[in-house]
Amino acid sequence: MLPEKTTQVLDMYALGAIGPEDVEYLLGRPVESLTEEELTYIGCLQKDYDAWLIEQQFLEEESINPEIINNESLN
């Protein structure tokens, strides 16, 4: 289990809010020293976030689809 401070830094890094130099500063060690567990954590978070973005885009497209809007107004 990763320490809370580490996961907070890795969260921001995985989502693109901070860069590698920020990770190094906040964790006090080079990015190259990230463990396999930390790298896996970053990869999983990025994958989950990408899937969430795709889902949000799909939901947005559905909500503005004229056919759906017309069907809802008829009910």
Structural features, described:
By secondary structure, the chain is mostly helical. It has one domain (4-74). Helix content is 75%, strand content 0%. The chain has 4 helices and no strands. It has helices spanning 4-14, 20-27, 36-63, 66-74. Helix 1 (4-14) packs antiparallel against helix 2 and helix 1 crosses helix 3. The longest helix is centred in the middle third of the chain and has 28 residues, at 36-63. The mean pLDDT is 90.
Quick overview:
The protein has 75 residues and is an all-alpha fold. It has one domain (4-74). It has 4 helices and no strands.
Summarize the SSE layout with pairings.
Layout: H1 4-14, H2 20-27, H3 36-63, H4 66-74
Helix pairs in contact: 1-2, 1-3
Determine the fraction of residues in helical runs and give it as a percent range.
Answer: over 70%
- Evaluate the radius of gyration: 19 Å
Sketch the topology as an H/E string, one letter per element.
HHHH
Helix tally equals: 4
Major beta sheet, specifics? Answer: none
Tell me how many strands there are: 0
Q: Helix/strand-derived class?
A: mainly alpha
Task: Quickly count the domains.
Answer: 1
Kindly estimate the percentage of residues that lie in beta strands according to DSSP. Answer: under 5%
From the spread of the alpha carbons, the general shape counts as elongated
Indicate the mean pLDDT. Answer: 90
**End-to-end CA span:** 51 Å
Q: Uncertain runs with pLDDT below 50, 5 residues or more?
A: none
Keywords:
mainly alpha; about 80 residues; elongated; 4 helices
